[in-house]
Structure formats: C-alpha cells, structure tokens
Design brief:
The protein is mainly alpha-helical and 154 residues long. Helix content is 81%, strand content 0%. The protein has five helices and no strands. It has helices at residues 8-30, 33-68, 72-91, 96-127, 129-141.
C-alpha cells in the first residue's frame, strides 16, 4: 500500500533507521573492535538525536489519536518499545552483543510500526477526517534531518 503524505517523512526516517540497524549488525558480527566501538557511539548519538525526536513526534501526535480511536493495544506496544529502545541505547558500549541487540530491537520496532501501526493510521486517515488532519499535523512536526546509515544527513 502506498504511504499517505502524512506519514511519508516518518516512513523515510524508518528506512534510515533500518539501514542503520543493518550497518550495526554488520559491525557487530564482522567488524573490528574499533568499528564496533565507533558504531556503539553512533547508535548512542543517533538515539539521543534523530531517533528520540522521531519517538517524541509519534508519542505526541500519532499515539494520542490512536488511543482516542480505541487502539490502546497498539499505543501500549509502541510506548513499551520506545522505552525498551531508550533503555537499550543507554547500555550500548563497545560490546558486540549490545550493539547487535540494539540493532535487532530497532529493526523489529520499525517493522512493527510500518506493518501494523502505520497501517492502522492509514485506515483511520481514510475513515475519519479528524484523524487525517492530525496525522498531517504529525507529519509537519516530524524531524526533517535524519542520519543515514552512511552518516550523512538528508
């Protein structure tokens, strides 16, 4: 299904998060100790910056709408995963296992949001004008700068 305009920026950020998770997995599995250390620092910085901003946008714009529309299970899961990712990021160090664990959590979370959470947002946007308008507001609040897996900014 083609993503609505209201969610395109958040989906782009998800694509970059998936690329970052893949790069982190590669570093954890086959990178040198220096590469693992550099990736750990990059993951912490990305979590504190772009990912945190992305989470806050979802938490303040999308999730209240979904809760009001009766999707408390999806909201609870999203909040729990955001909390887990924040906790995991705080523990990231130069250990391969922690880098890999964070990458796997991030990848699973993005896939959940794209496949489940955003699908419900799309359905709500098509069925209710009020939800559609707020989803558009969420898009306008979304951060524009996202770190790519290469480290460059879009």
């Amino acid at each position: 299904m083609k993503r609505s305009l209201a969610l395109i920026q958040l989906s782009r950020e998800h694509q970059h998060a998936l690329a970052l998770a893949l790069a982190a997995k590669r570093a954890a599995v086959s990178g040198s100790a220096d590469e693992v250390t550099a990736m750990a620092a990059r993951l912490r910085a990305t979590m504190a910056g772009e990912l945190e901003t992305h989470f806050r946008c979802e938490e303040s714009n999308l999730l209240p709408l979904l809760a009001a529309a009766g999707h408390s299970g999806l909201v609870s899961r999203t909040l729990a995963e955001h909390r887990l990712l924040r906790q995991s990021a705080a523990l990231i160090g130069p250990q391969r296992g922690r880098v890999l664990a964070f990458a796997e959590l991030l990848q699973a979370h993005v896939r959940f949001e794209e496949r489940e959470l955003f699908q419900v947002c799309e359905e709500q946007a098509r069925s209710r004008d009020g939800v559609a308008a707020t989803v558009v507001a969420a898009d306008q609040a979304a951060p524009a700068a996202v770190v790519r897996a290469s480290g460059s900014r879009e």
